[in-house]
Amino acid sequence: MDGEDAKWRRRKYPEPGRRITLVDAAPHAVRQFFQPDTILYVEVFDKKYAGVLLIAPDGRVIMQKRDNKPGITNPGKVTTFGGSVEAGETPEEAAAREIKEELSLDLTAKSISLFKVFNKRKETHGEDSTCYIYLAKDIDVSAIEVKEGQGYVQISRDDDLEKLNLSVLTAEILREYFRG
Question: Which among 120, 134, 135 has a CA at the least distance from the CA of 23?
Fold first, then answer.
């Protein structure tokens, strides 16, 4: 692992065998492996985003239909619900806070699990940021009250992702999720 700019973070998790995500700063690749009690990853960018894949009981993924306002990231696109990680906040806390603000759903940092860490690159995604993507399962769609964006869409494994108006990162995330 090289990268003078990379910041190493170590976190302890209570459950042995938890999935570990390692982001390699040099090629900006993400690898996952198992280790009993430590998660180790590299944050490549100072800007951090926490997003959540909301999974309905039938397996469909609930995604945000973004506002179509000039000046916002990915206007009119389908993306994860989520937002920036604020100073003094963990990505898990940011994910739970954003879901509360955007959907009035009470998730806790303990009720979500890390799916994967992605790095958005300005050349490909329009901005540089480290993106922590979490899973929240068995979400009751009838409990969703959208407070940000145009609404939500539900995407299944059988949908043709190329025909949906997905952001570049969202397409990457969903391909990875449905592969697993």
Answer: 120
